[in-house]
Amino acid sequence: MPIPIRRFALAAEKEDIVIDAGITLEQVHHGYGIASWEVNQRAITRGHGIRTGLEDTLVLSNGREAQSNAQLVWAAISMIGSAHLR
After folding, report:
1. Where are the domains of the chain?
2. What is the pTM for the complete model shown?
């Protein structure tokens, strides 16, 4: 299984553990590297918070190198704005 898919599956597994434990606090998801964008997209569509920045990834969702932390944050804001929330 490719790394982004494994990390996406791991995010789903961790979410299930939290829900099954009855924890109702807001969840904030994040990933690392290129996989962070798939993890963020999943979290957004499920109504969770996200975090992103150079500490998480050095690339944008299209694989291009980010020029700044602000560029990553704007990409995340754009992702939130275009999300189909459930």
Report:
1. 3-81
2. 0.80
